[in-house]
Amino acid sequence: MRNQIKTMCLGMLSLTGLVLAQIAVAQGNDIKRTPSGHPDLSGTYDVSTLTPMTRPREFGDKMFLTNDEAAVIAARALERDIERNRASDPNRTAPPQGGDGSTGASGNVGGYNTFWTDAGTSAFQIDGNWRTSIIIDPPDGQFPPVTDERRAARREALGAGEAAPVREGGANDGTAYWLDAGLDAPGPYDNPEQRPFAERCLLSFSSTGGPPMMPALYNNHKRIVQSEDTVIIQIEMVHEARIVRMNAEHDPAHITKWLGDSIGWWEDDTLVVETTNFRDTPAYSQGSANMKVTERFRMESGDKLIYTFTVDDPTVWSAPFTGEYAWPRSPNKVFEYACHEANYALEGIMKGARMLEAEFRGEAPEGVPNPTR
Amino acid sequence: MQASVGKFTLILALSSALSLAASPLTAQDIPRLANGRPDFSGIWQTLNEANYDLEPHIARHSLQMREGPINPVPAIPTLRMGAVAAVPGSMGVIVGGGGIPYTPEARALKEEYMANWSESDPEVRCYLPGVPRATYMPMPFQIVQSENDFFIAYQYAGAVRDIYLDNPGPSQVDSWMGWSVGSWEGDTLVVDVTGLAEGTWFDRAGSHHSYELHVVERYTMIGPNHIEYTATIEDPQVLTEPFTIKMPIYRRIEENARLMDFRCVEFVEELIYGEARRHPLPRNID
């Protein structure tokens, strides 16, 4: 049965791929324009994609997928979703304490299952070609090498124990393992400021707000509203509104912002947005305060925006890199992502760590006893 | 009439060509989009005491008070803030000059909230402000408008509202900032807001509502730099009748007016999670 579905999907998808390619060529002239003549980018886009940021090694220097390869990628994802969405066995036993060993957001005990994820149903296509990776420059689809300074700094941080101690494999085994190094040893849950921005509801994970704005496991909607002097890009995850000031100058360098300071201008039919003035912790977490991101927005057709970005951060990378991917229009509306208002998890994470530490020290932890022990 | 306007403009142009070029509108003119609709685009802010208390009130010692030997005095949570936490007086923003028409039970709950303000006002915890409170938070907001879109970004807590001009039907589920459907009545934008979750307040004086809150806002430009704003508030669970608030909204005319970051989630972490640190900082002053 599953093989039948797979064959059917493969057939359907390769057909769809061919049809889409033809439509993309035919649709060049249906781009809406504003009263002043610029392309009208306003609307809602779903940027989810199965194409990864960096190119899988199997594709080498190949920038494009064949229709068949794209169809296989989509069919595999569909097959995986069908498999994971099967009804649970009502007579199943409880999973083992500490999880069943599976990893990732949909793995282990209490993780999100596939119902909650929405990472796309196909690779993306630009100008009729399926892409193997988002990064297009360097031409091998990989990040340029990090600078010697950055590599040395990372090594030093690891050597000094500044990086959060993590159990091998990342598994949470339900103990205060960080106290193995001594009862006073620092741990990753000592302070809320040590937790990731997404856990604290300060920013989304996966740089959905960026810049550069990247696709994520779910909540992939972007909403653009455009006036003559301002472009707003609303990002679904954690209700960000990037405000792009058109034909303006950057603010003074010491006015740093969580999402940077964005100014924009038109180059023919392409909206160019340049962002600087990052804090030392940009949403694109690999970058530094010295990052400059240049984004380009162009409509390939009335229904598809092409988003291109160049990241230039000489502190981190030995050369700039450029990526691009497609933003198809979506009929959806962006629902409010109110994160902090119900962030019971962070309090639970902090207090849970205090209980585990007490348990490690052989003290009776305060609060509700762990029912699994 | 047309001729006299033309003559007036000509005189202005001759006497002050430079300033006319910089500001081509007369006091009565309002900016408009190509399709003729008023153009509300820009950075705006209210200038009043509504966020302290919608109702008419004289100045008070503090946002939170307790009984003193002679008269009420600041409560412990706001004591050290002194005059910074005092409440300025106001004639109120409620049309007709009265108070909020709460039921007796809802009035009692408001007073209880007010007495425990620091523990119960969602603003203290940096929660999304809801509608209409977002309008009169003491920070700017920015409207970006085109023929088909009307979007409001608020500085406080980075709140956002997409005002749907294509009427997508009723709200599907409640949210902090609600579900806003806009329509034009002449030059007035009327925004019907439903789907408002009950966790928000109207002010720092404990003015609460239920999930049955329904707000109808009206935005009218009364000059190039002024909006007349009204919000009619219905809530059959806590009000005996609807009431309307009214206030001007002012354009932030400074050239460098901006929405700045006010990501206050970070600022309340010590308040909310500080006790759960491995080594908590002192929580009491004495």
Shape of chain A: globular
Quaternary structure classification: heterodimer
Dominant shape of chain B: globular
CATH class of chain B: Mainly Beta
How large is the share of residues in beta strands of chain B? Answer: 15-25%
Rg value of chain A: 23 Å
Q: What's the CATH superfamily of the largest domain in chain A, by name?
A: Calycin beta-barrel core domain
**Given this structure, which CATH class of the largest domain in chain A is correct?**
Mainly Beta
Topology record:
The complex is a heterodimer of chains A (373) and B (286).
Chain A: H1 2-26, E1 43-46, E2 64-65, H2 67-84, E3 125-126, E4 129-131, E5 135-137, H3 148-159, E6 221-226, E7 230-235, E8 240-246, E9 261-267, E10 270-276, E11 292-301, E12 304-312, E13 321-328, H4 344-360
Parallel strand pairs in A: 8-9
Antiparallel strand pairs in A: 1-6, 2-4, 3-4, 5-13, 6-7, 7-8, 9-10, 10-11, 11-12, 12-13
Helix pairs in contact in A: 1-2
Chain B: H1 2-15, H2 17-22, E1 42-46, E2 65-66, E3 73-74, H3 76-79, H4 104-115, H5 117-120, E4 141-145, E5 150-154, E6 160-163, E7 179-185, E8 188-194, E9 214-223, E10 226-234, E11 243-251, H6 269-273
Please supply descriptive tags for the structure shown above.
A: 373 residues; alpha+beta; Lipocalin; 2 domains; 10-stranded mixed beta sheet; 3-stranded antiparallel beta sheet; 4 helices; 19% helix; globular; B: 286 residues; 9-stranded antiparallel beta sheet; two-stranded antiparallel ribbon; 6 helices; 16% helix
